[in-house]
Amino acid sequence: MATIREALSKRIEKGETDSNKMVQAVSKQLGVNPTSVRNMLTEIRRKAPTSGRSLKDFKQTYDKNTVVPQKIKKALKELGASWEYEAEFIKRAGVNYTDMNTFREMFGDNVVYVKKDNKKIWCGTVAFANQLKELI
User: Considering only the top CATH level, what class is 56-135?
Assistant: First the structure.
């Protein structure tokens, strides 16, 4: 007969996350009081090893090649089917001019160059940018 700890550990390894369902199932399976099962589950989770941060976490915090494009993508999503001059878009994205110059080409389909005014316009969607390019 399995112990409470073994039964709970198997369910956790399988990826079960609902504590209430887990407690009810194990107490029914082993014929024990649900309070005993819940106490054991709390103990197991308290002793569970925690890992440090991953490389992905580091990149999302400090790597400009990850952070700046994420900010630009977020700003483009906020912009939707509309446009802004680059100066306004830089403020929306929360990046500086140097970073924008570095990463602008990555989002070239969203940028419309207005030669008459010598300005750059950022469009939230590529389809909208194509519509504007046809008008120029």
Answer: mainly alpha
